[in-house]
Specification:
about 210 residues; alpha/beta; Rossmann fold; Arc Repressor Mutant, subunit A; 6-stranded parallel β-sheet; about 55% helix
């Protein structure tokens, strides 16, 4: 039986996923409501698949995926997101996730995705795969493409209204390092302040209103 760790900050979402997976004979071995908790519990739980929501308080899902991969290069992560952009799937797959599933997908697709990732196979829902392929063919450049991995993480947290001190704590960086990243992000995105960064993030679907 496939053993899964569910990582999502919404209790009702985890409950729904647990029931859905249980009906398909997939066991939920553990749950976590933050990326920090997932990283802390992963070694002890040793799940076959980590189902990771990307939008959570604290470090968030993208940073958690990076840390899990650093902890165990063989970790099998299925990332979930409500975002409509192409930057999130590109970034999290590059960070080491095996699969990406939009939360708007049909329930049965979660089961198929978990089974595929458990076998070490790549999985992308059809709509996300089409969006990524179209963006590559059309050459649609997202503003996020100009940012490094660390700059993108700082950008997302800033856009959600977090302070430099909060970001430093979440990402385990010094405030001065976060300040340097912030400066580069503003320069690259031609933004004058945090409010403008938030507008850019909303416009491109990186965060939800």
């Amino acid at each position: 039986m496939i053993r899964v760790m569910l990582v999502d900050d919404h209790v009702l979402v985890r409950m729904g996923f647990r029931m859905l997976l249980g009906n398909a004979d997939i066991a939920v071995a553990a749950e976590a409501d933050t990326g920090e908790q997932a990283c802390q519990d992963y070694a002890r739980i040793a799940p076959d698949v980590v189902v990771m929501d990307l939008s959570m308080p604290g470090m968030g899902g993208l940073e958690a995926v990076r840390r899990l991969v650093a902890q165990d290069p063989k970790v099998r992560v299925l990332a979930l997101s409500a975002h409509e952009d192409t930057a999130h799937p590109r970034r999290v797959l590059k960070a080491g996730a095996l699969g990406y599933l939009a939360k708007r997908s049909a329930p049965d697709e979660l089961i198929a995705a978990v089974r595929a990732v458990a076998q070490g196979q790549r999985y992308l829902d059809a709509r996300t795969a089409q969006a990524l392929a179209t963006a590559q063919i059309d050459g649609d450049d997202s503003p996020a493409d100009m940012l490094s991995e660390r700059e993108f993480s700082v950008f997302l947290q800033l856009a959600r209204g977090m302070s430099v001190a909060q970001i430093a704590d979440n990402l385990k960086l010094s405030p001065s390092t976060v300040g340097t990243h912030l400066y580069h992000v503003k320069q690259k995105l031609n933004a004058g302040n945090q409010s403008e960064l938030t507008l850019i993030a909303l416009r491109w679907g990186f965060i939800e209103a």
